[in-house]
């Protein structure tokens, strides 16, 4: 032990990397450390095979929700889910005194990409929500709904599901449409979408926010029912991983 | 000891690590001079790991359970898989895992786990080495899907405790999900296992699921029952000593 004290400054024991060297000491250090729950450092990882995320919105807030499964989407949420436009959600949040981080990835978050080190000073806010549209889809989005920010310092890993805003039929047609209420998919950012699809029949009657059933796609880039590629654009949950360091 | 309890202990690497960790963790003890475990050290901790296959029609290859250092990771999403992981994900071959840096113990199941069935292996780990535990097994009727719990912290498990974890299916990203005849080692195909070529996105990610011929992938030898959804396995870890 004496030897290790010389080799490793005491403070480094607090880093998780060194827990295996001196776990009891690190644990004691953590329990004694003053906790400031306001400082968050956040990573967002795209776990999908072939889907992009549009600009992310992170909101630290008290009560309320950006979205809620089983509830109708707001128009602001619909704009995000159908077209990737987070501006209304962000301005609503700001108007309510919440704290936002908008578009930390500076654009699209490609499949397999991650954005790290998002700093968010949540101040007195106790909840964290995250959304972004999944492209190419009609109205799918990644969602973290009012996660209770821990008061204990540490690293927390959250897996996010893909939600369906319930506002637009999943016809899987890429036609450039991203405005709320206009059928179709804005784009396939990977350049891997098809054309001339006849349109999937979406017989869902659920017009509330729900877990997305996933896309079907097909293997005919020049026709078939879908403009999506079943070998590229399908996903299973979770679709995103959010790693939150509470400092 | 049942065959499935068979445990492979590393030689030199384990000795060195035990020596280092012994120094770091046992504050009141003299550093060990030669043996991996000081004679006055506490008895090793004993863990059992039970994997239950939750899929409809995807046998799981004999499970691999590795004990490893706290900062070792079997894989990182968004990054390429190691060749050892590629061999597991494409062919169910667990042998390469023991050589990964930071791995101290490997326990392997003997037989594949049919859908709905379970298998258990045990690991005895000297207390100073107790840190991370990872479990991995291939969904054999796929090109390169594997179910895993990556880096569970065993130190949070008190004597007599057990924990249930649910494994997600990941895609190793090392082989295209063609589902084509001859490309998958499971009973649906009896095709090839490991192939050194990497013809997919070359990063580990959440598996998008199999499509199957029944859902429009013309060349697929899989059918509807081979599809799966998360979670694909339940993993129970129990500490009995």
UniProtKB/TrEMBL annotation, chain A:
<protein>
    <recommendedName>
        <fullName>Spondin domain-containing protein</fullName>
    </recommendedName>
</protein>
<feature type="domain" description="Spondin">
    <location>
        <begin position="51"/>
        <end position="169"/>
    </location>
</feature>
<dbReference type="Pfam" id="PF06468">
    <property type="entry name" value="Spond_N"/>
</dbReference>
<dbReference type="InterPro" id="IPR038678">
    <property type="entry name" value="Spondin_N_sf"/>
</dbReference>
<dbReference type="InterPro" id="IPR009465">
    <property type="entry name" value="Spondin_N"/>
</dbReference>
């Amino acid at each position: 032990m004496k030897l290790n004290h010389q080799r490793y400054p005491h403070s480094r024991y607090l880093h998780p990397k060194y827990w295996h060297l001196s776990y009891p000491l690190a644990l004691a250090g953590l329990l004694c450390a003053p906790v400031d729950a306001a400082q968050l450092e956040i990573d967002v990882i795209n776990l999908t095979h072939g889907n992009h995320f549009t600009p992310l919105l992170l909101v630290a807030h008290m009560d309320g929700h950006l979205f809620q499964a089983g509830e109708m989407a707001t128009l602001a949420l619909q704009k995000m889910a159908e077209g990737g436009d987070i501006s209304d959600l962000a301005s609503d949040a700001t108007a309510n005194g919440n704290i936002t981080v908008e578009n930390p990835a500076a654009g699209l978050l490609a499949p397999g990409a991650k954005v790290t080190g998002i700093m968010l000073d949540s101040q007195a806010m106790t909840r964290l929500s995250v959304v972004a549209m999944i492209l190419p889809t009609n109205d799918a989005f990644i969602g973290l709904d009012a996660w209770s920010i821990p008061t204990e310092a540490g690293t927390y890993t959250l897996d996010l599901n893909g939600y369906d805003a319930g506002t637009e039929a999943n016809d899987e047609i890429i036609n450039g449409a991203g405005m709320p209420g206009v059928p179709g998919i804005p784009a396939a950012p990977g350049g891997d979408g098809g054309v001339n699809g006849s349109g999937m029949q979406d017989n869902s009657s659920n017009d509330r926010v729900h877990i997305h059933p996933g896309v079907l796609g097909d293997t005919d880039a020049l026709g078939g029912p879908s403009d999506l590629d079943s070998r590229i654009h399908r996903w299973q949950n979770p679709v995103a991983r959010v790693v939150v360091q509470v400092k | 000891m049942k065959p499935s309890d068979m445990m492979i202990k590393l030689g030199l690497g384990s000795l060195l690590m035990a020596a280092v960790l012994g120094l770091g963790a046992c504050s009141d003890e003299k550093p060990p001079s030669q043996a991996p475990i000081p004679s006055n050290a506490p008895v090793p901790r004993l863990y059992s790991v039970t994997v239950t296959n939750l899929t409809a029609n995807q046998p799981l290859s004999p499970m691999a359970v590795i004990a490893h250092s706290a900062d070792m990771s079997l894989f990182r999403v968004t990054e390429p898989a190691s060749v050892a992981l590629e061999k597991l994900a494409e062919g169910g071959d667990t042998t390469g895992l023991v050589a990964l840096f930071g791995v101290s113990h490997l326990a392997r199941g003997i037989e594949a786990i049919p859908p709905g069935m379970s298998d258990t292996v045990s690991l005895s780990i000297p207390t100073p080495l107790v840190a991370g535990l990872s479990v991995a097994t291939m969904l054999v009727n796929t090109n390169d899907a594997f179910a895993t719990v990556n880096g569970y912290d065993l130190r949070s498990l008190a004597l007599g405790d057990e924990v249930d974890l649910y494994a997600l299916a990941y895609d190793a990203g090392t082989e295209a999900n063609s589902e084509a005849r001859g490309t998958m080692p499971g009973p649906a195909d009896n095709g090839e296992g490991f192939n050194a070529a990497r013809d997919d996105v070359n990063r580990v990610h959440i598996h998008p699921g199999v499509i199957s011929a029944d859902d429009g992938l013309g060349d697929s030898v899989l059918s509807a029952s081979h599809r799966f959804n998360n979670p694909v396995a339940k993993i129970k870890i129990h500490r009995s000593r």
